[in-house]
Amino acid sequence: MQNTTITHKVVILGTAHGSNVPGKRSPDGKFREYKFSREVINLLKPRLEAHGFTVFVDMPSDEVPRPGSTELSLRCRYVNGICKKFGPQNCIYVSIHVNAGGGRGAETYCYDLQGAGGRLARAIQKQLVKTLSPFDQGYKDRGVKAHPSFCVLRQTAMPAVLVLNVAMLLVMLSMRWRRAWIPLAAFAAAFPAIRTYIPLNFAAADDTAQEECLRLMTFNVCG
Known about the structure:
Elements: E1 10-14, H1 33-50, E2 54-57, H2 68-86, E3 91-99, E4 106-110, H3 116-132, E5 141-146, H4 151-154, E6 160-167, H5 168-173, H6 181-197, H7 208-222
Parallel strand pairs: 1-2, 1-3, 3-6, 4-5
Antiparallel strand pairs: 4-6
Helix pairs in contact: 1-6, 3-6, 6-7
């Protein structure tokens, strides 16, 4: 019988766009997607490393190569280079974004709903809804969707997902909630989701990072 145990220990985190990419911000210009993505990754990377994961970031700098086709090509080349070194069965790719469209809620994209990327997407989406919905009664589960035309899903060799953490309308509404909690919320959702998808031996005390984030979120909403 084929061994289907998930043994991934390499996590590649994908940043969203860059400071030099037009648009990609809230209507008032105060919330920038590139900055949000990097804030989440700056929370995720050291915590995952503390749990024994090897973590890479595809484009950590604020500015990215232009035009967009060059940016995407270089991202995929970098990700696939790591995949070749460690093996696709040991790697996952999580690209962190914000939905610039209307409405509220989150959605997670994968290449194929039936594949390993689909399982990873469902784990992250479930945790996003669980983490964020208590803070917004209008928060919606937009679901897990296959989107094989996304370059970072189509042209990467390991399970890959693109996460749209919150809709821009929620960002605007969060002015009264102090916007700083939004990256904390994304971290609090992604961290246990990756741990669920990639089962390793974790100490119970290691949950304190997520608990602290949820405490800060509650303070920022209610304080």
